[in-house]
Every structure is written in C-alpha cells, then in structure tokens.
Amino acid sequence: MFIRSVERDTTLDAFRKEVRAFCEKEMPAIVRQKQAKGQHLERHEYDSWLKRLGTMGWLTGKWPKEQGGLGWKPEQFMAFQEELGRAGAPPLLSFGPTMAGPVIYTFGRPDQKETYLENIRRNNTWWCQGYSEPGAGSDLAGLKTRADKDGDHYIVNGQKIWTSMAHWADMIFALVRTDQNAKKQEGISFLLIDMKTPGITVRPIIGITLGHHLNEVFFDNVRVPISNRIGEENKGWTYAKFLLANERVGNVDVAKVEASIEQIRHLIIETREDGKSLAEDPVFKRRLAELDVGLATVKALMADQLAAARQDGAPSLMGAAALKLRGTELQQAILQTGIDVLGRHGMVYQHEALNSGWNGEIIGPEESADVIYEHLYRRAATIYGGSSEVQKNIIAKGALGL
Ligand SMILES: Cc1cc2nc3c(=O)[nH]c(=O)nc-3n(C[C@H](O)[C@H](O)[C@H](O)COP(=O)(O)OP(=O)(O)OC[C@H]3O[C@@H](n4cnc5c(N)ncnc54)[C@H](O)[C@@H]3O)c2cc1C
Question: How confident is the model at residue 2 (pLDDT cuts 50, 70, 90)?
C-alpha cells in the first residue's frame, strides 16, 4: 500500500514549480488557445508541445532510470499530471510512453530498445494499438488476424477495428495469430509494424462526437520482418496482458479528471436560476461533494497502482481493473453533472464550435460544446481498454476467487 505522507515534500514543491514555469514558458500559444476553447488540436500542434516535454524526459518520467526514464516516484508523476492539468495542457498520449515503451523495455531485444525507446521518449514516433477486431473485443484472445512465416518475414492478413489515432500513427503494435491450431491464448504473437508498410489501409470511423478519432485498419499481405516480433513466437498473450494493466492505469488521467471537475464547478457557480447560483442548490452541492470524494478515491487507487508498478514492473491486473472502473465511472458522473447543469442547452451540440477558426455564436454557456463533446466521447470510457463488465469479472476472479 502506498503511504501518503502528511509532511510537505519540498523536493516535490520545487518540481511542481519547475513544471509550472515550464508550461508557462514553453506551451505553444496555439495549443494554449485551442485548449482554452476546448478545440481539437492537429497532430503537428500536439507534436510541438509533446516534443518540448520530451526534451525534459517528462513524457517517460516514470520509466526506470536504467531504461532511459527518470525513475519518478508515483507522487512525482501525479504532481506532474496535476500541474499539466492546472496549466490547461492537452492530455498526454499513452500509446507510446505507457503501452508500447514498457513492453519493449521489459520484453524486447537490445536492438529493439535502441530503435524504438528514444523515439518514444522524444515523441518522434506516434503509436497506435492493434488489439480489437470485429468479433474480438472483450474476447480478445479470439482474434483472427494471422501472420504466416515467409523466410525472414511474416505475411500479415486481417482486420483491426476501433484503432484510435491510427490515421496519425507511425507504428502499430498488433496482436496476430501465429499458430492456427494452438489453444486461443497460446497461438498469439506481438508485432511492431510500420504503418507505412504496403498493404495497410486505414479507414475512418466517425463516432458519436462526429470527430475522427477511430479507424479500421486492414492488413492485406503486409510483410513484417520477423525481427519486429516482441519476445517469443506464440507468447504474445503474456506481453498483451502486461500492456493491458498499464493501459488501464493510463486510461485514468487524474489531472484531466480534476480539471473536468473544476470546469463543472465553475459552470455550477456561474449558472443562475431564479436569480440564485446553482452552487446554492442543495442537489448540486451534494453532487459536487460526491465528485470530490470520487476524485480522492481515484487518486488513492492511482497512487497504489503506480507504487505497485514501481515494485513489480507492472501494476496488478486486479488493481488496474479497480482503478479503471472507478476512474471511468467518475469521468462519466462529472460530465453527466455538466449536462444536467446545461439543462436545455445540453441538447444542442455545436460540434463545429470545436474546429479552429469557427466564429459562430455559441448557444448557451461558453463551455457547452466542450462539455457535450466530452460527455459524448467519454460514453466510451467504460468500453475502451476493456469494458466495465470485463473489469468486474477480473476483480471478481482476483478478489473472490470466482
Ligand atoms: C472510443 C474507443 C476507442 C478504442 N480504441 C481502441 C484502440 O485504440 N485499439 C484497440 O485495439 N481497441 C480499441 N477499442 C476497442 C475496445 O477495446 C473494445 O471496444 C472493447 O474491448 C469491447 O469490445 P467490443 O467492442 O468487441 O464489445 P463486446 O466484447 O462485443 O462486448 C459487448 C458487450 O458485452 C459485454 N460483455 C462481453 N463479454 C462479457 C463477459 N464475459 N461478461 C460480461 N459482459 C460481457 C461487454 O461489457 C459489452 O457491454 C476502442 C473502443 C472505443 C469505444
């Protein structure tokens, strides 16, 4: 159990100050402006900020020092996230630093570490995750994308779906079936694939937010060097599970959650009904208090998981499941409160207001489009990274031995 110190940590205070000053000075104006309006960033805008964080080593601060990280303690990572949230920075991307990186430094060969880790540290490479397929989501081990050997290459054929940011990604880490006859979990390998390889087609899926975030990725006779396999052939399930625990912890961005509560608190204070601020309404007072308690719980769970990861190299599957469950339920509760505060304005989704250069008139409070977008987007939070029902199954198995 992570021990929360009651004494003031002066080193941590100094670090917070450094991050604050860095954000103040280094965050590109366009990123700051778009974030303030809740507008979408282009990849090059995101890049310009992430690369600056990369020069400090902060994208991968929690990696162990021997792997090129800064060996941050959990409280330092959380302080970092909090300061980014306070500065209005965009969320960190987890596909490289939280998912691919730790798999590569834990199970990869020295030449793979050499090729990929520095580029993740510096945000030179964007990664996406090729796990889910039509028919293989919760039942991930049922995946059918196959990789057949041909000399020193695999020939990959099949389809991935719901692949976030594949249209921006340089690399995909993909689970593929390398043994058609073995038991489901035993015939899977973990491949690193360059998205520019001939035979890969990325098609957009436009979701409920009307934004482009999701994709289908098709593999048609894609030649992938065998040397791009992580670890042993047919042992990919082990690496996949290791990654999933990290992913589930990464699914909960405490700073984003905190910033989101502050946004809704502000909205509650500013919204007036019969001449009185909603902040005086006992129902909203109670809901805010519940959100604050939820945040404290999620912070404690997060600290425990980060501490476990430092000790054992990865968070526990069960602890990560509990954090993912509570964290994503909290995200949805915050945004539902936002929609309830918006009232009838919550019914008008002006998604074009989130595009840069839009100069139309906002219907309702200024935050409306952003709150509605987030509300719609985060409906998926209890699905991606493994649905809530699947997390409950993991907790039941681990805690109750079911
Ligand atoms: C916004 C978004 C982004 C995503 N990004 C990625 C990505 O980048 N890469 C990637 O690989 N995947 C991604 N996914 C896919 C995601 O991981 C899957 O959607 C998720 O694992 C659920 O799988 P499924 O959609 O096939 O649903 P299904 O597995 O078909 O589940 C349907 C329903 O049945 C329930 N269910 C299924 N099995 C059980 C069970 N054993 N017990 C109880 N209930 C069960 C589920 O909880 C769910 O409610 C993303 C999904 C979304 C929505």
Answer: very low
CA distance 286 to 278: 11
Q: Phi and psi of 162, rounded to 5°?
A: 60, 35
Domain span including residue 132:
127-234
Residue corresponding to tokens 């039941």: 396
Number of domains in the chain: 3
Higher per-residue confidence, 343 vs 8: 343
Is the distance from the beta carbon of residue 138 to the nearest atom of ligand 1 less than 6 Å? yes
Ligand 1 contact via 202 beta carbon (within 6 Å): no
Is 85 in the same domain as 141? no
Pocket test for ligand 1, best of 384, 394, 395, 402 (most atoms within 8 A of CB): 384
Say which CATH number the domain at 230 has. Answer: 2.40.110.10
Does ligand 1 come within 6 angstroms of the Cβ of 137?
yes
**Positive/negative CA dihedral, 154, 155, 158, 163:** positive
Give me ligand 1 centre to Cα 234, in Å.
23
Domain boundary among 234, 259, 283: 234
Ligand 1 centroid – CA 396 distance (Å): 19
Within-domain flag for 20: yes
Phi (first) and psi of residue 329, to 5 degrees: -65, -40
- State the pLDDT at residue 315: 78
How many A from CA of 331 to the centre of ligand 1? Answer: 18
| 117 in a structural domain | no
Mean pLDDT, to the nearest integer, of 298-305? 90
- Domain co-membership, 291 together with 346: yes
CB 59 within 8 A of CB 121: yes
| pLDDT digits 0-9 by tens, 55-108 | 999 999 999 999 999 999 888 998 998 899 889 899 888 999 999 999 999 999
Indicate the top mutation candidate among 144, 162, 377, 382 to test ligand 1's pocket, ranked by most ligand atoms within 8 A of CB.
162
Domain boundary among 234, 266, 283: 234
